[in-house]
Amino acid sequence: MNWDGWLPLLIVLSSLSVGLVIFFLPEERVATRTTLNLTGAVLKLVLVGVIIWGVVHRHHYETRLPLLPGLDLVLRADAESVLFVTLSSGLWLVTTVYAIGYLEGSPHRSRFFGFFSLCVAATVGVALAGNLITFLLFYELLTLATYPLIVHRGTDAAHQAGRAYLTYTIAGGALLLVGTVWLYGIAGSLEFSYRGFVAELADGHRAALIAIFALLIAGLAVKAALVPFHSWLPQAMVAPAPVSALLHAVAVVKAGAFGIVRVVYDVYGIEFAAGLGVTLPLATVAAVTIIYGSMRALFQDDLKRRLAFSTVSQVSYIVLGIALTGPIATIGGLVHLVHQGVMKITLFFCAGNLAETLGIHKVSEMNGVGRRMPWTMAAFTIGAFGMIGAPPLAGFISKWYLGLGALDAGQGWVIFILAGSSLLNAGYFLPILYAAWFKAPPDTWPAERSFGRRETAWALLAPPVVTALLTLALGLLASAPFSPLQWARSITTLEYAP
Amino acid sequence: MSHVFLYALVGTGLFTLGLYALIVHTHLLRKILAINVMGSGVFLVLVALAARARGAAPDPVPHAMVITGIVVAVSATALALALMVRVRAETGRAELSEERPE
Amino acid sequence: MALTMAAIPWGVMAILLPLAGAMACFLSPRRASPLGLITALGVVACAAGLGWQVAEQGAQRYAIGGWGAPLGIDLYADGLSLLMLMVTAVVGLGISVYSSGYFNREKAVNFWPLWMFLWSALNALFLSADIFNLYVTLELLGLAAVALVALAGGADALTGAMRYLLVSLLGSLAYLLGVALLYHSFGCLDIALLAERMEPSPAVMAAMGLMSAGLLLKTALFPLHFWLPPAHASAPAPVSALLSALVVKASFYILLRLWLDVFPVTAAGLGQLLGLLGAAAVLWGGLQALRQTRLKMLIAYSTVAQLGYLFLAFPLGSNVAWQGALYLLLSHALAKAAMFMAAGNILCFGGHDRIADLDRVAQRLPLSLAAFGLAGVSIMGLPPSGGFIAKWLLLEAAMRSGQWWWVIILILGGLLAAAYVFKVIGYAFTQAVMTHEARAVPATMEWAALVLALVAILLGLVAPWPLALMEIGLPFGGEAAG
Questions:
Q1: Is residue B99 part of a domain?
Q2: Closest residue in chain B to residue C142, using alpha carbons only
Q3: For residue C265, what pLDDT is reported?
Q4: Which chain C residue lies closest to B89 (C-alpha atoms)?
Q5: Which residue in chain B is spatially nearest to C146 when comparing CA positions?
């Protein structure tokens, strides 16, 4: 049996099948459900490891199934998909552990974990998609799988958030669909290829290609939370913390950003896109989002909403790196895809811990919490400094490359954007850290749950500590052979013509 | 051929009259009768169009169509009348209610 | 083995078997349900057999009694008829399974013979090769459908049935007048012969107008759709399913046949008109669906909207456009049947189908809600589903032919569908108070709905095969028309 042809599909199926089984489990079968969840996550990680090994040894993994006459469903492991799928699978394992701890005792867990698994199956499909229609298919599937997670709690606020989410994402999906069909009509193919396929197949349709680019990016910008399509993200914070972690770091926002990577590099090709004149507007939108997101974050008292606006801002770093024409900026953008994910998930895990253990939802309630929950706040501190871009953490690496890349591409104004944003980041993270570590704690916390001598449950404590350590490692060991930085470098070499 | 043309014209006229009655009248029995008049109109047209050259036997195919049509019309009328009686029993009036069940 | 498979007239059996089944159910009412189910399985087997035959040997023509056209009645099975027959078989099997759990003894006695007659009429309609036989089968279909609607018994159902009957008869009479004019002009009734002899003339234009008007009335195209929501919403759930999924498609099929085979040279301007009316149907149906307070009315207006999509293929006219419209027809049949069945489950369990009070009922029927959700994915045209494939094909056709405005209609229709589907789905996720009661909905009913919804989703992943089947016999004139 030719495993190379089936491995990508197996990766998708590993969580799809787990999800379907979990739907039918009765609520009380906690142990079964936990086992299934963790087995699925570990299995996926193992399969991803096999793919990484294979890609390094020049294996070609591709699953191809006929979807329409002339168009196939293609799942392929190329350099970018490996980057994204590793991020997703690794962080999914951590989030699964966290979610199991977080949702202990709450209702509808089978339903939750069923859609949870479906969501990751869709994300992995997005990562491994080998052409634009497969991407579109899994992208829309992601919308359908995440909606039930957002409205999980069933409150009015949850439904409001769900409605906003659907309005934005379904409209965005429609734009993406129109762009894709149009492109197919002109180019006759939708297969991703290094350096893009549009240049060869679609000569002489400049105006149409610019319009298609706008449509595709608009459709992707919804999930990537670019201004002005970002409003759903802060509203979606009513969902449980594992969902927020998933949305921001692992799945939805990353899928949008990854889509933009694919469109700019593997559909249009960076040089062709620059020639069309579409990259500069994209960089401008990203820059506006970076500043806008950071400014809004300054004024949020609700911790998760502050983190949400921070995500709005940070994901645009990725888009900025993509849009600047130049290999160094590309490296910065791609590596930030990974780094931002790891840092942000740390912050959300910590926010969830504070809410679950002490009932803290607002920044103003966080005085002195560092003494009560030292490990959690230590992880938060690492994540926050990474966001600000302090060396030797992961965030510093990405900002460094973005800055250099901006200079290299002749867009010096970007440096000011980066510097301004770092200042704003400091502006909304440092006060939190100061309050947590140096201010006196209140007499009682809003809603304390006791865990004996531990600061909180193991399942809630271990994940953020792990991801914080990872943030440290990604920064310190950035020049090690298989670091995301090196991987981003090799992708960049493939994307730029010699 | 002119009286054939007359028959066809009368048939079309019956069809139109029936259509008008179907739309305008509210009582179900009148609507059912209107449908029957329309049916007769169509059958008359069919019979008229069956005529062939003077002296030759008429074309049997339209006649076959008319016979089939009559059978269908009779069954349909029976069903319609039975339904009308049931509607009358349930609602007290032999009319289609104007409000849609929203 | 292959020789016997080829020798059996599967098409004829597909018509005769349900007739025999109807008689059997009528004669032994106590065993009506099992007999009906056995017949359903038999019809599925016939459809499969015919499928094999057509795939192996190309389009099939069968002369009843050995007489042949133009005097005899021919049966003709090409790719288009085959697909209609197959989707009818699958949905019919689902409805039969569902009905075996839905109806109590007295109603079942009346339901099964009528349903089998209707199925036989449908199969005969899809296999007819001449325009008068189409009239006869259309009438049979209409009468059986009206009787089934009236089965529910209340004032709503009876009025809906009466209105439906009058509309149906009006449509058929208009069609028959058109048949008379065509026969007079060309001396034959067989579709293939008419296609050869066709030339434009005032009589032909009149015939086209009459027949189209009659068939559009029966297919409930805006603004002739007024009879559909009351009839479909007040009928018993399996009847609503078969009406929305199958019966309205029959008149569309006839219109399609006439358009492709009999009238192609004369019909240019009419295409844009049909497309315009279709667009109006999509928007009007979608908006009305959003306003409804009862679930079955919402689903009925959704049918009005989805039928509008089918007519968008007429102004486009290319091969891809017809493929898209037909694929939508197939997916919609499966998805709509699943939706009505799910609604029937909710109605059966909760005693009402008011959308605002749905949550307490719906959350105790997760399988039905899943069926509704999956069917909704196809209705919205989101991947992976048959509805998405159809939408893709129609979008592709619209862009290739440069008629941009249809793209906007397709997208708006999808957004409206998302609005009304998620309006219902949202009720699955509330903090309603649950009491523990025994579930009264039989498992067969829930699973029938879910399986049909899953097939609608599956159609999104196996598209090349039905699309290839569709082309057998070149009903769309092959690539020349694209």
A1: no
A2: B76
A3: 60
A4: C155
A5: B79
| C-alpha C193 chain-centroid distance | 27
Report which of C69, C107, C87, C73 is spatially closest to residue C196, judged by C-alpha positions. C69
Q: Is residue A465 part of a domain?
A: yes
pLDDT score at C164: 94
Q: Could you read off the pLDDT of C319-377 as tens digits, one per residue?
A: 899 999 999 999 999 999 999 999 999 888 877 778 877 777 777 788 888 999 999 99
Helix, strand, coil abundance in chain C, percent, nearest 5: 80, 5, 20
Q: Is residue B15 part of a domain?
A: yes
Helix, strand, or coil (residue A303): helix
Cβ count near C223 (within 10 Å): 11
Tell me if A371 sits within 8 A of A426, measured CB to CB.
no
Chain C contact set for B79 (CB, 8 A): 143, 146-147, 165
Confidence of residue C3 (pLDDT cuts 50, 70, 90): low
Q: Is B17 on the interface with C (CB under 8 A)?
A: no
Q: Which of residues 47-76 of A touch C (CB under 8 A)?
A: 65-69, 73
Q: Where are the beta strands (DSSP E) in C4-134?
A: 60-63, 74-77
Query: Which helix (H) or strand (E) element contains residue C399?
Result: helix C386-400
Nearest-neighbour CA in chain C from B71: distance (Å): 10
Separation CA C149–CA C127 (nearest Å):
25
Angle at C185 between CA C183 and CA C188, to 5 degrees: 40
Q: Does C397 touch chain A (CB under 8 A)?
A: no
**Residue A412 covered by a domain:** yes
> Whole-angstrom Cα distance, residue A95 to residue A76?
25
pLDDT for position A199? 78
Output the six-digit token pair for C39: 């017949």
Chains that touch C (3 or more CB pairs under 8 A): A, B
Q: Which residue of B has its CA nearest to C70?
A: B61
Contact C165 B45 (CB under 8 A): no
CA A396, chain centre distance (Å): 18
A189 touches chain C (CB under 8 A): no
**In-domain check, residue B101:** no
Residue A496 sits in which domain range? 298-498
Which residue in A has a C-alpha nearest to residue C431's C-alpha?
Answer: A154
- Residue A497 pLDDT class (50, 70, 90 cuts): low
C177 touching chain B per CB within 8 A: yes
Predicted local confidence at residue A3, as pLDDT: 72
Rounded to an integer, what distance in angstroms lies between the CA atom of residue A456 and that of residue A477? 30
**Strand duo A62-68 + C74-77: pairing:** unpaired
Show the tokens assigned to C226: 């007024």
- Which chains, if any, share at least 3 CB pairs under 8 A with chain B? C
Give the CATH number for residue B7: 1.10.287.3510
Q: Count H helices, E strands: chain C?
A: 22, 2
Q: Do residues A322 and A213 touch, judged by C-beta distance below 8 A?
A: no
Give the total number of structural domains in chain B. 1
For chain C, the average pLDDT equals 88
Number of folded domains that form chain A = 1
In a domain, A440, yes or no: yes
Residue A133 lies in a domain: no
Q: Which of C158, C177, C181 sits opposite B83 (nearest CB)?
A: C158
d(CA A319, CA C81): 51
Phi, psi of A74 (to 5 degrees): -120, 125
| Alpha carbons C311 and B36: distance in angstroms, whole number | 31
Question: What percentage of chain A has pLDDT greater than the value 90?
Answer: 24
Q: What is the ipTM of this complex?
A: 0.94
CB of C411 within 8 Å of a chain A CB? The answer is: yes
**A240: three-class secondary structure by DSSP:** coil
Q: Do C183 and B61 count as a contact with CB atoms less than 8 A apart?
A: yes
> A439-468, pLDDT tens digit by residue?
888 888 888 877 777 777 888 888 889 989
* C400 to A185: CB separation less than 8 angstroms, yes or no: yes
Q: Which ranges of chain B have pLDDT less than 50?
A: 99-102
